[in-house]
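User: Could you walk me through two proteins back to back? I'd like the raw sequence and the structure tokens for each, with a short line separating them so I can tell where one ends and the next begins.

Assistant: Of course. Protein one, sequence then structure:
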Amino acid sequence: MKQRAAKLAITFAVALAGFAYARTGSTAARTAEVEPAPQRRARVPRGRTTTRATRAPRRDYTRFDHATQSHRRSCDSCHKFPSANWKEVRKGEEAFEDVTEYPEHASCIQCHRTQFFARERPQPRICSVCHVNVTPRDQTRKPFPNPLERFFASQWARDFDSDFRVFFPHDKHEGLFGMNAVPSHERARFVTASYRAQDAAKENASCANCHAVYRPQGKSDDEFVTKPPEDIGDNYWLKKGTFMTTPAGHDSCFTCHSVESGMKPGPTDCATCHRLPIVGTQTAPKDFDAKLAARVGVTDLVLLSKWRRRDSSATFRHEGGMHPELACATCHKVAQMDTTDERSTRVHVMSCGGGEGGCHITPTSDDGGIFNFEMDKRRETPGFECTKCHLTYGRLPAPASHAEATRKPKAD
């Protein structure tokens, strides 16, 4: 009996072991189907590196860029003339038909439906292009950059940089303005480069239709835009009357180019004046020091925007010294200006003098030219900084035009 009981126990144990093995094998097989065995990393030979696939940069839909290829279309495909609020942004007699508001949603949603209905909180990012907040209770829009006066009064203007450059053909307007500014017997000529003070007012009269000294010092004893430190010494600090005004907005243009007059280009011909920068002409560095501007404490957006774009002498002051007695065309080549190409608006160094009748550039340093003095210092000490005219340019190598300007005149 005992031997028989032992055989039954052994048989039962073997059967139980076989059943357990079958269950384990089937489970492992199913696991292998779901989770494949980890693969061994291929060995990389020494001296070689592997590269990971890089994702395309994520588009920033919080900023609208007119230069984007898909946005290069006719202006009236998005902007409607006039905007519904044109009578509200300018009151009474000052109001005129104009584009004074962002395009409606229909202009955007045909291409950006995915971004409009993205599940992003607190709102889809694309909404921040035009809106301050996007909630059922607050759908306030940011002020449109026209009129500029209203826009500059808002916080949104501080870091604003327009995608466009405004094209203005001086050569087509100088004759018209000149006819209104000078006597009829002198209308054949517009302006002539001259150092004669008695002629400057007459020759500048046509320019004064659009340009005047911005925030002049006048007869005030306070010559600086903000209060300078007591130990300023010879260090630079922005003065009043440094820059000139330029027409801001459509007010000046629509005086002649209006719907009523029919003079082309009309108010609906936006692309005639608003043009994207020419590739390669807007990348030149400017003679501007952002840290200095912060120390000076400039808060006037007009001053700050003009200072940022100074690409010749950042320190030149239109109201300073004898400058008001000069004709504008002494320094500016008016007829050659293309306001969309910064290269054509630069002032050449020879405008500061040269030859026998120079002011800042004289035949020799002994004749008192500050330009000659600084150029001599630069030749003696390459690390010398030219600070009379420049902020950042003064640390760079002097260009060939500066060396040419200080050549002694040939003896007769």
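----
Protein two, same layout:
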Amino acid sequence: MSPRRIRAGAVAQGRREAERHYHLNEHLEGRSFIASSSARPYTIADISAWGWLDRASRVRKGADDPLGSFPNLKRLFEAVDSRPAVARAREVSKDHPFKRTDDE
């Protein structure tokens, strides 16, 4: 199999995985966070979803507002994205030498 076909398959799989998270929009109706309760309003589930939602502009290329059709997800994304820990993580990642080449 050619590297181009492998890469295309990986991109499609990544897109499907990201879009799978968009089904959470209905689940979030009336909730602040994915597994919210009074004892634990914010959990690792929200952090995990944030990572995929952060890529919405790549998954929904060309959309003016990639999460516009998913208001509950957009609200979740903005709530997590505004946390100080996220700002610190984004800052750390600027100095990290991420891999720039594709594997076979």
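The chain is about 55% helix and 0% strand.

Let me know if you want the two compared in more detail.
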